[in-house]
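Weekly puzzle thread! Below is a chain. First person to post its structure in token form gets bragging rights.
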Amino acid sequence: MAAVDPQPDEPLNIAGRLTRYFINSKITILIVVVAILAGLIALRTTPRTENPQIVVPAANIIVTKPGASPREIKNLVVDPLQAILRGMRGIHHTYGLALNSMGVVTVKFQVGENRVASLVRLYNKIMSNMSRMPPGTEQPVIQPLDVNQVPIVTISLSSAAMSGVRLRAIATNVLHHLRRVPGTSRSYLIGGQRRKINVVLHPRLMRHYDVTLDDVRRVVQATNVEIPSGHFTNHNRRATIHAGTMLRSARDVGRVVVSLYNHRPVYLHDVATVTDGAGRIKTVHEIGFGPAYSHARPHNIEVPEVTIAIAKRAGTNAVAVADAVLHKLRALQGPVIPDGVHVNVTRNDGERANSAVNTLIEHLFIAVATVVILLVVFLGWRAAAIVTVTIPLILFVTLAVDDMGGQTINRITLFALILSLGLLVDDSIVVIENIFRHYARAGADRVRETVLAVNEIGRPTNLATLSVIVAFLPMLYVTGMMGPYMAPIPKNVPIAMITSLFIAYTVAPWAARMWLKGHGSGAKHDRPGLLQRGYARAMRALLSRPWLRRGFLFAIILLFAGALAMPVLRIVNFKMLPRNNNNSFDITVRTRAGSTLEDTNRVITALGNIVRANRYVTTYDLSAGAMGAINFSGLLRGETLKRGPTVGEVQVHLVRKSERPVSSIAIVRSLRPAVDRLIARTGAMIKIVQHPPGPPVRATIMAEVFGPNYHKVQVIANDLRYGLFAHTPHLAGVDSTVPHPSMQYIIKVNRREAALHGVSAAQVAQTLKGFLSGISDGTAHIPHAKEPVPIRFRVPIADHVGPNDLGKLFVTNPEGREIPLSALVHVIKRPAPEPIYQKDGRDVEYVTAGMSRGSPVYPVLHMWQYLKHHTVDGVHLTQDFMKDPSSLHYGLRWSGEMRLTLNVFRDLGSAFGVAILLIYVILVGYYRSFAIPLIVMGSIPLTIIGVFPGHAALGQYFTATSMIGVIALAGIVVRNSLLLIDFILDYRRAGHALTEAVVQAGTVRLRPIMLTALAIMLGTAIMVMDPVFGGLAISLIFGTLASTVLTLFVIPLGYFAYATFSERGGQPPQIH
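Winning reply:
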């Protein structure tokens, strides 16, 4: 297709050349069609998630060394492991935990490291250094911690009538079917009772028949065998031979002959009760129903449940996988799930992601409609229609590029598009508005005037767009989890801006030539309106009266100083991100050391009563002895390792936020008084955990206490917990890793007596374990069982013995004599050894707290100031935010959300500085002057006059997204200044006097500048109420408002002062 050549009077720049080629080209129509198709395909095929996927490779390395104390584990296992890992590339931190007989080292890699490569390197490093582990150490277990392990769907099966074993068997069968759904990954069950063959031994009968626990275990092991023994051939037919008999039922186990008594066989059922069932309960999992539950509910308030947890495979669409799982679940109701079982979907991240994305798509449409109405009012319906057509084309191209780049459609992606909406229409607005002006020339050739109009604003528009792009690009280098979380903004905004520039130079002129009216309408457009005439009068007054200029400048300085004073005076407060309005929250419980499962369950039940009183609660999951289904924040807090009788959790599910007038924040606040009373009554540590809107942290406020003596570190941590932290306002759930003291009994074997009686220490230990906690030996081979069915030996609870009753227990020596344990051992009672925590190879204790309200920044600063002037247990603590204290002194490092806040604001501040520097370099290259770029960039600090007062007026925190808004403003306002200066220089080159050039340039650019500002403000207004991006919207709206109004005066006045000074000094001002 031949290009149209209007033969302009001056050489065409790239904008003019693009317009000249595409204005009559058929390719332009293809561009429109391809952009629409690509965008529609991307909308359908791009995976949807609520938030961007943050890749943080991590793993737990679990090593056991039976019998070793925490101090031994620390010295022999944890320290060597951390030393081995210290030289590995890509590791961010290692966290050690030394317990009785077990050590755990958690490895956290740098954000963005390749997950598979990191785990392979970790495995190879550990396996190649196993020679450094002490004798008696078992093979390490490497447990990856991956976001794709977090279930996206959890399904509760509950019944008041069924046993826990039966309910789990149904759930196991359901899980077997759901695992076949494409896209699913790790899946597991929580709750119910596993099926066991329970052998409840009766000590009295065992003594009567002269049978010991060792005898029973040895015989059952020897009996439960079936092995291939060869084959034989008979009549040319080959058959295999299997020898032995597998135990396939409780009846088979009970009929095992364990001894002879008076020449008659003694069966296992003669000395034990053998049953097929649940066994001893170690965890409790129930579901409760709140006032907002809308389906038929059981008669009981809380009933046993089994939760089916299903995660998705990496890279799959959460919405599609969740929908497929639930579709399959509906098909299983009836054939697999009987009528008496209640089915509740307690988590559906696919629905949540789809709802979030759909809501933001609606917001995007609302923002587009708002901008369209604005364009119609300012430009008329024809010009508005042209600009409106460009908007979906730009958005479609951006989504298509995201799809090809492996990105997902998530909240941040769509917020980036809403953010860029006001920017991306600006290119088309500038182009169409200038074409409007050129059409005012009567009788002009429309093609020629269109090309000239685009060519006229091409260079400054290119530069302005480049300024916006370089303002966002440095945000790609934000570190930590906030980097990938916010990455869709610096990725998508530049893509949208480049696309908008191309569309503005190709599609917009093509449409303008066909759709815009002729010169009559342009003549009307060319006449200055009331606003423009008022602006011209005001500008002439400022230019002609030096005292008025000085007064205007002084007023701006006062406004700027007043805005900067707002954070200092705490009129505006800082926070990482405000809390989100969620559909669920968690309550974690840790009872005192030594508490039983029954104690913990009573606390959990009391919490259920508190939660059930709230009218917006639909269901709640109660867990005692273990945690419920893990979520992303729980994964990073280390909850996968929490289990035992002192651990519990309540997961509370609320009515959808779109259907309730009260936020989850207010609901949590209303529960706190009752929870605090429960804490005072039970002494349990209870924390209400709300899901963060951004990257999670281990605790909102965390102090990491280091020092040369670990016992002293524990004392300091306890003093901080019960002293400073407990008395700091607005802190909630104050806790530390220092455990409550507890006692333990050590049963030591008298080696001399044991040797004289022919009894080994291992025999004593196994006997004690069997009679106290039970012991499993082998499994029953049940053909249709989908989980292993262990054979477990134990004694009745009534026959349990304490440390002072060891005379009731006997072991048999090789001669067949029964020896009472009391003759072989002696009992020592002493404090239980405490776990030892480490971070990066150094002993540490953690003091943590949440916030009942407000920002954690100010309580931390208050405690910082207090510790600067006071000692803790006679020690003056050194404090730091960015690095660990010296190993030679006692000190603490402030971590948690405060550390994340400092890191993010540091990175965003650095990005802001780099953006300003890059913009300045580009402007120096463009203007070939060092002074004019400074004038152009004078509009950047003017944004602060609007940003801080805007946050104060709406009572909002200045957050990380607010800072992103400030960075975005740097590119936006420079764009306006640049076009103003460019038009002033154009008028000067045309021979106008300085004053006239300044006034005329401002008058001509007033309308498009105001139009762009209003488009940005109205386009982002829909985000104001969002908990994450509300700060960004406030920054953009108020910063744009203040800067636009002031830029129209400050920048022309700045150039006027520069030009006047240059002329007085004998140097002509730069006008090239």
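Puzzle host: Confirmed. Bonus trivia for everyone else. The radius of gyration is 37 Å.
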